[in-house]
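Subject: ATPase structure
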Amino acid sequence: MNRFVILSGCSGGGKSTLLAALAARGHATIEEPGRRIVAEEQAGDGKALPWIDLAAFAKRAIARALDDRERASNLPGFVFFDRSLIDAAAALATASGNDAILQSLKTEHRYHNKVFLTPPWPEIYRQDSERRHDLAAAEDEYRRLLEIYPALGYETVVLPMVSVEERVEFILAGIETEK
């Protein structure tokens, strides 16, 4: 069984908060590549920001996600990823119209079979300096991910819109049944 667990889904759906709660319980976590890249780009020349050049951004996210996987291989137990290599490849496929990299992920760089998706949750969605797209764009992304993950052989589990602690328990119960 693969111990790399993906938290994906709608932007602004509570993934980062959920990741922090898992880390507080002692689980290994990997922060979202996209947020880290946006922060770096905003501190630099900004040429690979997703609202400037989505393809350049996605290519950097793919490279970062591959580095994250390598780093995670040295971490104990389950490792929880805020987004994944698949999310980055999906962004590149959207930007370029070429899904070759995405299709290669049917067999390469696999994660845990269950992928936990945060659904659109308008009450908690917030735009900020790193998340400039609106809720409608986030919902479009969510719908794409709902199709992409199963097409690559993953079981998607949509998280309930409950408290952070209840979501943590839901995820842990979901992966513990597969030990």
